[in-house]
Amino acid sequence: MRPRARQLKHQRGSGSVLSLVVLAASVLLYSALFLVAKVVLMQGQLQSSVDLAALAANQTLRGLNTGLPCQRARAILTINVAHLETCSIVGDETTVAGTTSVVGIVLNATATASGS
Prior knowledge:
Layout: H1 2-10, H2 14-61, H3 69-79, E1 83-90, E2 93-102, E3 105-114
Antiparallel strand pairs: 1-2, 2-3
Helix pairs in contact: 2-3
């Protein structure tokens, strides 16, 4: 009976270490999943903002809004915490590209709107 007691004595506290390792791994996994979810969500929000900016720029080009089309697109992206990269007008089409940064990751989106 003595050898068994000696074996258990050397393993004292191993359950605590194991539970701390499992807890740390869980926190790391949830943090990674949270980061991925945040990036996906922000990409969708950026695309919506760029779509809106392209539509507003096109409406301004057609005379439905006052001002300059690319300035209108810049203003909308600024309100939505994004930056205007490019704004081009070809005929009755406006193309807007915008960027934003999430935790050091740069996200890009482009949209085109045309008046018909």
